[in-house]
Write a structure and sequence with these properties.
The chain is of the alpha/beta class and about 190 residues long. It contains 5 helices and 7 strands. Helices cover about 25% and strands about 25% of the residues. A 7-stranded mixed beta sheet has the order 3-2-1-4-5-7-6, with helices on both faces.
């Protein structure tokens, strides 16, 4: 989604990804993802988080990678096939327009490094209302974002939200903050459903 020219996962096939900026266990540990869970990667881009989650939830679990770009989804499908991952379903769509999933279906929803491209004044109600709709009662929303510090990777400083700004945007839609994890250049906020 966002990043500079030196992102470890930026390749002609993938484009930029924040996945290589921290150890996967630093992201997935706080999420409490378990075998059999349903995981939704909103704005999945190249799908690095979705591929990692597919391994964690195993064959009884399900992973949905939603993105609006057909080319990255085609690449993700191919990569999943090559890796023998059959529980990952790439879905084309714009999450600002709704989510093509059933009510109460998702255990964990991840929004990784895409906060800076959202127009929350216009879309917060639609986005987080839909996320809350598809979440299970005990589901978790995780937001991975670049720190609000001037660093070489990521969006301009003015486009980086603070943890408080993120919490204020999601709280009115039925989420309460459970955890804040420092990931170096990034932070991870985990919210439970109210």
């Amino acid at each position: 989604m966002a990043g500079g020219q030196d992102d470890r996962r930026q390749t002609p096939r993938h484009g930029p990804s924040s996945f290589g900026m921290q150890a996967p266990e630093a992201v997935f540990g706080p999420l409490g993802l378990r075998p059999g869970d349903v995981f939704l990667d909103l704005g999945c881009g190249p799908g690095d988080y979705a591929l990692a989650a597919a391994r964690i939830v195993g064959p009884r679990g399900r992973v949905y990678g939603l993105d609006q770009w057909d080319e990255v989804l085609k690449s993700l499908r191919s990569e999943a096939m090559l890796l023998g991952i059959s529980n990952l379903l790439p879905i084309a769509g714009d999450f600002r327009e709704g989510l093509p999933l059933a009510d109460g279906w998702v255990d964990v929803c991840l929004m990784a490094t895409l906060w800076h491209v959202l127009n929350l004044k216009r879309d917060a109600g639609r986005i987080f209302g839909e996320v809350r709709r598809v979440m299970k009662i005990d589901g978790r929303l995780a937001v991975l974002s670049f720190k609000k510090e001037d660093r070489p990777r990521g969006p301009p400083l003015a486009q980086r939200p603070s943890p408080d700004q993120i919490a204020a945007a999601v709280a009115p839609h039925g989420f309460r903050q459970n955890r804040l994890a420092d990931l170096g250049d990034n932070f991870l906020l985990v919210f439970g459903c109210e």
